[in-house]
Write a structure and sequence with these properties.
single chain; mainly beta; Jelly Rolls; five-stranded mixed sheet; three-stranded antiparallel sheet; 2 helices; about 10% helix; globular
Length: about 110
């Protein structure tokens, strides 16, 4: 599926993998050399993430149930933990620099298309 910033009519990720099971969410991006440009991982449900065991930074968009960006993390370094965002329903993990490149801001609405 694809992730689109509906507020700005901008594509965020062209290939998004949806991690819904406990196993898929737990594994996340572990074991990958990097997150390819245009790729993303949607963790649902999810209110907090970490980069323990990863060797590269990521961007992360924390979304509420309506797909609104309620928190964002730009270039989260390896071996870090995000804040726990109580109102978050899902987190979209992206290659570093994606937030800046797409101009995504708090309050923007992200939609997912097949």
């Amino acid at each position: 599926m694809r992730a689109i910033n509906n507020t700005r009519s901008t594509p965020i990720a062209l290939t998004v993998v949806h991690a819904r099971t406990l196993w898929a969410r737990s594994r996340g991006l572990l074991g990958r050399d990097r997150l390819e440009p245009g790729a993303g991982l949607l963790l649902e449900p999810c209110s907090g993430i970490h980069t323990v065991g990863m060797a590269y930074p990521i961007d992360a968009l924390f979304l509420n149930r309506d797909g609104r960006v309620i928190h964002l993390v730009d270039r989260m370094k390896p071996m870090r933990f995000s804040r726990y965002i109580l109102r978050a329903h899902s987190v979209l993990e992206l290659p570093p620099g994606t937030i800046q490149q797409t101009g995504t801001l708090l309050g923007d609405r992200v939609v997912f298309e097949k």
